[in-house]
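ok so i was messing around last nite and threw this chain in just to see what happens. nothing serious, just curious
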Amino acid sequence: MNQSNIRILVVDDSPITVRKLSMMLTGLGYSIAATAASGQEAIEQYRKCTPDIVTMDITMPTMNGIEATREIIHEFPDARIIMVTSLGQEKMVLDALKAGAKGYVIKPFKEAKISEAIHKVCS
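result:
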């Protein structure tokens, strides 16, 4: 899969993180399909644009990233979701992987780690 053809849905309740991650991803040659600020919005956006990859924050109000991942995977079993997490959330990462996430990156993220996680879920 060519990088420029990979469309990513960026999900995080922090507008700063969404902007930073989106800029990093476009800088790496990926395209942003959509963004979402909550788990519920992530599900709606996924249905609308069926991205190739989702970067999903774990901790969000109303519906967290694990619940949203579970929903998306239930509806779209081939969805490729990468969890974005803070240090010290190892148990939540395990829950996310059990829910169907294909990988994870730890905040504050580095370009190389994001790129590596994307390549891993694409291969």
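not much to say yet. Strands lie at 7-11, 31-36, 53-57, 81-85, 103-106.
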